[in-house]
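Researcher: Dear colleague, please comment on this protein.
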Amino acid sequence: MINLTDIQPQSDEIYLDNNATTPVLPQAAEAAIHTMNLCYGNPSSSHMTGIRAKYILESTRKLARQVTGATDGEIIFTSGATEGIQTSIISALIAARATASLITKPVLLYGATEHKAVPETLKHWNQILNIGAEVVAIPVDGNGILDFDFIAKHVGNALMVCTMAANNETGVFQDLTALQNIIRSNNPDVLWMVDCVQALGKISLDLTNTSIDYAPFSGHKLYGPKGIGVLYVRDNAPYTPFIAGGGQESGLRSGTENLPGIASLNAIFKLLNDENDDTFKSHDVLVSYRAQLEKTLREVFPAIVFNHDFAYSLPTTLNFSVKGLSSKDIMDLFDAAKIRVSSGSACSSKVSGSFVLDAMNKPRWQSEGAIRMSFGPANTQDEIDKACAAIKDAVSALKNSCLILSDADEIIDSNADGLQQWIYDQQCTWCYVDKNKKEILLIDPVPEIASKFETLVNCQDFNVKAVLATHLHQHQEDCAEMIRNVFTGKLSSESCDSLGWDKSVTQQVSLENDTLAYAITIGDKVLAKIDIPGHTDNSVAYLLGEAKQGRLAAEDIEYVFAGDTLQIGGIGRSDLNTSDSVQMHHSLRSLAQVITEHTLICPTHDYQQLFITTLALEKQTNPVLADVLAKKLSDEQFVEAKLELDQSINNDTQSALCGNIKADIEPSIDVDPGDFSQFLASNPDVMIFDVREPHEFEANRREYIRDQKIINVPLTQITHFVNTHKAAKTQPSYVCICRSGSRSDAAAKTLKRMGFENVYHVPGGFALLS
């Protein structure tokens, strides 16, 4: 196990994720440590040690009033903003219970771009307290500004209104004076909470001279420690303690106060109030920081789009997307280059966009590709300079990996060669490259990877041999045709069938069962096509391998692209409009006649991030398939068995749309990061696989751990590795590592499932290695 003191920031780390949390200022840390060591009294104690502690408490409360402009009302110390939000909403809803029944259709209003803590808390306590109100989102415009007409129309029936001073994803701020006017002119008595977490230290607050009833703040968003916050409650606003007990905080919030955390706020508030201290920069300085970062980002990403108008945003936040790059591409690159930013979507094969950008009606690619870069009001010019330099250095790795085109006339030698799997939202696009012949083909593309493919082709001047689909559902967007149309000089869409196969192809190869199949060449190999209807009436399989004297024998087929007919852990469903179970039965048997049990099958969906499978593996977990391949089932028996499988999809919300996937995956073997050096010493012949993508590997190249060389085997190329290392499954040992341990776990499980015997991975990855 790693010692706590060994967990430290990387040297030269560039931290640009301040909207998530900030580093603790030295002055705040000092104040907290001093209080823990020397001012350890309980503020409720009447002796002198307690009195000193009480002074820290009350002096901080006084400072909090100064920085928030709250000359009256209550200032209550909490554990953070979430508790403040809970307390505010509970207080308002309990007070509103008496009047809710008098309103025909009571509503609880919140801004559509609010932090999830707000709508989820409203829904939760609305149900628990049996208020019976409808929780309604206030729409925003393209700039993220609340719809005043909507508020005017609905606020009359509102029991509570929740808005935020500044958004955590985009930095968009609301005009609180104008907002107050529209709320109060239509409902003078409605209770109003304003989330001020992102505003403190960045914009001037004057709470007393507003009609805001509740305003929560959080210490860790302004250079304080986690676990401390402040809640402002306006005089005469209804209040119900969220935490009852010993009566601390004048009975408003029980529990012994977090004095070290409060002391850290004391130090921060003093800095904010000190006009002669330059720790917290002026608005103009922060604007200049943003302009410098914006200029750098535009230089390195010509296709960048900023997702918010700077005129409506705090200067400390830049939210952007880059056409052709996923948020994961950029975030992983920056993280490898020691630049810490946030993604606007989940970093996994299951893609989700930013609900904030969705509410602003941004295009899907912007929402799903969003990156949030946020600095803080205490950042220095030197830190911004270093950030800009690091960004420029990092993006050069994207150019070398052909993820963006260089603006210089230079030759890029990409390492793209062999088979790659690009996953978007659990959908697989298979890209095969013959680097020597400069030829490329694409199978089952999705729209979101179109720009990536186009950039790679243009970067390397590849000859596009084909852009194919294995099947198309009714009304499905034909992405393959869309991409073919981009390369009008290299491909003719007019000569292709519905799946992209060139109808003028005359070359044929004989298969294992002596049937003939049309084929095209790609480098030194051929790609043959056979019909396998069943999942859809147009389903086909593509067989990629080396033909010898016009024959593509089963043992010479390296990959089978079978669409959704065969999946990892299941058979594709056959209860769709264009499906036919009898045809699928015949297709499965005919496919098995032309490949071996160990031929690598590449599906169109990868629901478990295991990349590939084989007939031998599928037979072990799928009795129906085993019986099909053993020719034990009649058509009628298969139809009956398949109907039962397909029906189970509808009864299992976890099942995938295109197939019934139920496979137990044996876990990989972990090597604790704290024991990794010892593991390497005990296994001198182990091969270390860095499964990050090439641009991450190049952004901060690390070639050795101890004396063992690191080999970059990108996760997108793990199938290629499995195919080319069939003879090395017992020796040597392999240990997979990545940024955080997620991808290395997937790689290790895949290798182990494919028969590699000695496979390990490092949980936590490089993030936990010194």
Summary: Residues 627 and 633 are 6 Å apart (CA to CA).
